[in-house]
Design a protein that fits this description.
5-stranded mixed beta sheet; alpha+beta; 319 residues
């Protein structure tokens, strides 16, 4: 039971201490926002997969250490439950996995239906209040509203939405910065990453890793989109656009990614006073180390499964 115990400890450590590890990794000499998005996504996926694998490992341990026992469990569940009086353990593991899967499925269906309903309603609203327009070489929905705002909606019926009020307060370069920011959200599919972590946090709100990811990932996607806009247009237009639209989307739906989201003041400070750069090898080394630590629970869980199935025990050596 050494390997399963090590796997449990690794999974608990990632779930509880993982957020601190990832937050420290993003500080001085840390990777950029796109890499941090990948690390947060990796951490949440590893934790979820490790928990599912752990349930299978404990079931295999209770059913017996040999390949014969595992095969017998697959061929005849009833016989496996009767052997070694392990039925209660298998039943508990199966019940936990089933409950978690149903919880995740139910939350995903509920959030998916709510999102689809909102997008249909939003599209009807755009058809009545907005018109398609080519703005700086990009097709957008131009809303005839005095409110200043810009955001993007994923999907075939979505796209970049900008209001007449925003065009009135923004200069040409600032509009290009806003469009580049929203285009980055769509092209890099940030809504999928944000939706994934919010789904996990909604389904399992007591897991510290999921709670932290739901807080950090929306900020990171804004940073990544900001960096894309800066590369295309420059720092000054983006900073001024953030200032002009800072109050625009306080009542915006969580279904959209808006130019004014995720603490605009911090985003401006990040662009105006960036952290001192580090040597590339140091950043890559730190990123590789964090990725290895994040992946460790799944690797240990897989090793535990292989050890339970492949390594012979003394009572099997005679066969």
């Amino acid at each position: 039971m050494i390997w399963p115990l090590a796997a449990v400890c690794a999974v608990v450590a990632l779930g509880v201490r993982g957020p601190d590890l990832l937050r420290r990794a993003s500080r001085s000499c840390g990777p950029g926002p796109r890499t941090m998005l990948a690390l947060w996504t990796l951490a949440t996926a590893v934790w979820s997969a490790s928990c599912a694998a752990l349930a299978a490992v404990f079931a295999a341990e209770l059913l017996g250490p040999s390949v014969k026992a595992v095969l017998a469990a697959c061929l005849s569940v009833l016989q496996a439950l009767e052997r070694d009086n392990a039925g209660w353990g298998v039943g508990v593991s199966a019940a936990l996995v089933l409950a978690a899967a149903l919880r995740l499925l139910w939350t995903g269906v509920r959030r998916g239906r709510a999102g689809s309903s909102w997008r249909r309603s939003h599209h009807r609203d755009l058809l009545s209040r907005a018109r398609r327009r080519l703005l700086h070489g990009q097709r957008v929905w131009l809303v005839d509203s005095a409110e200043s705002g810009a955001y993007c909606v994923p999907g075939a019926q979505g796209g970049v939405v900008i209001t007449r009020g925003a065009l009135e307060v923004l200069s040409g370069p600032q509009v290009r910065a806003v469009l580049a920011h929203e285009k980055a959200h769509l092209s890099q599919r940030h809504h999928l990453v944000v939706g994934w972590v919010r789904l996990l946090d909604s389904a399992f709100p007591r897991v510290p890793l999921f709670r932290a990811a739901a807080s950090e990932v929306p900020v990171l996607v804004e940073w990544a989109a900001d960096d894309r806009a800066v590369r295309e247009v420059g720092v000054r237009p983006l900073v001024h656009a953030l200032g002009a639209l800072a109050e625009a989307g306080r009542s915006r739906s969580p279904q959209v990614l808006s130019i004014d989201g995720a603490r605009p003041v911090d985003r401006v400070r990040r662009q105006v006073a960036p952290l001192a750069g580090c040597r590339r090898w140091r950043t890559r080394t730190r990123t590789a180390l964090v990725a290895a630590l994040v992946s460790a629970p799944l690797l240990i869980t897989v090793a535990s499964a292989l050890a339970g199935v492949l390594l012979p025990y003394c009572d099997c050596a005679a066969y």
